[in-house]
Request: fold
Amino acid sequence: MSSQWASPKVTADASKKKSVGKGVFRKCDKCGATMPAEVFEANFEVCPECDQHHKLSAKRWRELLLDEGKLERWDEALVPCDPLEFTDGKRYTDRVAAAQKATGASEAIETGCGAINGEPVAYGAFLFAFMGGSMGSVVGEKIARLFERATEKRLPVVLLQSSGGARMQEGILSLMQMAKTVAALEKLRAAGIPFFSIMLHPTTGGVAASIAFLGDINIAEPGALIGFAGPRVIETTLRQKLPEGFQRSEFLMTHGMVDQIVSRLELRERLTVLLRHLSRR
Amino acid sequence: MAAHVLPFEKPIVELMARIREMREITRLTSQGRSFDTELKRLEEKMARLAREIFSDLTAWQKVQLSRHPNRPHTLDYIETLFTDFQELHGDRRFGDDAAIVGGLARFDGASIVVVGHQKGRGTKANVKRNFGMAHPEGYRKAERLYAMADKFGLPIITFIDTSGAYPGIGAEERGQSEAIGSCLAAMARARVPIVATIIGEGGSGGALALALANCVNVLEFGTYSVISPEGCASILWKENGVAADAAQHLKMTAPDLLRLKVVDSVIDEPVGGAHHDRKAAADLVGAAIRKAMAKLAGLSGEALVEQRYKRFRALGVVKE
Reply:
């Protein structure tokens, strides 16, 4: 909310592309190691040198986590409206159209069902590239339906979050999505079905302050920025520089807010073990 | 009370002062009668002027009213509307956050749990109350009070008046996000009636944490928004000066909220705003709460949870 459209510095897709003679090379955002682009791609955008986790596309996430990369999609036809007729120099409808064109996605989240090492799950993944993964009416609706269907079908929910927070352009209605998604999650909880909350870089604002920390298991990616208020807002409020590592996954672990920090490359196996612990079959 | 006067309320406040003065003279002297007509004329003039000015306020002016330092706050409403108020302190985990007050009280003779944001009046009180911006402890206090209400079958009455949850280092260290999320979940599952009233500012998630209710009412000059107009302006327009524009675009005033179905009803304020007659404002708020409670009275715990679920489930606009 309030804050986080101040988008943290995230390169849109992965590390910077750079042509060096023959073939495309890429440079790690953190350690600067330069390697052929295929090396990054094959390693799911994790730097082999320093373990920096770069942004991973929704498609690659599916390939990484789901059996055969297969997601049976739910609610793909849901698209946003412009209830506030919002404009900030650029019309909201134009921003949505631009985001759809740039990402090829209909909204900032994809949901559906699939399996992880044979364990059936209801699965959702935010698309940060789509307007900063912001949660408006469509994202809220898709998450609510994800929890509702999962409750009905008795499927554990795995949700990958990467979001700046509520979508300002839908104003108060985007705030209401926090209430809606939490209330839907309560149904899942009441039915005794587990929720695995996976927090990627970044998870802030209205998404952080609604469902993100309500997982039965909360998992953070290494080095992710996770928090309520964006660092810029806090710095402006307090008029001081924030300490190194503030609001990063490791900070959250130290303060008892996440169960585990798991490397992307180990997430599938880790989830499998956890799913089997909590499934009552 | 005249210490804080917004530019657009100045003519009304001046007239009010003259009326007060005249009443005082009437009381002190025997020649009161001669002022009767003049008093009546002035009162009518003031009411007319107030209606004129207040019927045509911009969104930004309403934002300023919602933040008016003289506006009645949660404890003012508690004092007027309830009896036997017993404040309950602390989150039983870390501390007691004075930015959120809560406890047990009686409304129309029946026990209820009350929770509300509390702003201060004056610098000292505002520092104590952190300007109504709660830390995680505040939300955890609210959460435990919701749980208590659920356990003992007591209705929950909340008052919303905050610019937002506090964005600070300690707040992040102690899990501001988790605290708000858990607070929302506790409201979602409570098997008792919940009636929320936005009495001033309804700022973002920090406000919502007290507003996942069966019925949400807003005072005429209350506001409710996902982000402050200043914050919105600084992010989208990268400057602060256009907060007034942002206030307009955010559709955060009472009529907008009613149109978007985010609130169930708008509670009229006394002439010139709630801060000009706190008692009358409290009576109007009390009547609205009474009405909401009566509507919810016959519902079972499960039905209340379901009604609340459906209420929020329906909010949002999508195409399919």
Residues 204 and 227 of chain B are 6 Å apart (CA to CA). Chain B has two domains: 7-56, 63-313.
